[in-house]
Amino acid sequence: MGLQLISLPIKMSKPFRISILTNDLARTDLELSHLREQGYIVETYQAVGNLQLAQPFPDLFIIDTTSLDQFNLVTQIRHLSPHVGVLVTIPLTNQEGRVQAFLAGADNYLVRPYEVEELLAIVGSLKRRLGWIK
User: Is residue 9 part of a domain?
Assistant: First the structure.
């Protein structure tokens, strides 16, 4: 009976990284603390023109802006790194934004205002879909 080595997939040996692109850093404080409590590595960036700051790309982008450029950000992310997850937050009053998010390439959307538990559930779902959880 010899020692058997088991190799784990690379994704399981490193933490799940999330970048939040926002135009309101103060609004993300609660989300940051809850995501970090779950073991995620979370970074925040001002939304405009900071895709280069987020490289190497994280495993998931959360785009939490009130600007019309949020769908352009999704398109840019998909073009630069098609395999990362993308979650877009959309104001309750923006009905057509939900469809626009998917057309731009988002994996899911979250309607603002939202509960932290809903955010954590969607992040967990995307983590499974991206192959982090079997």
Answer: no
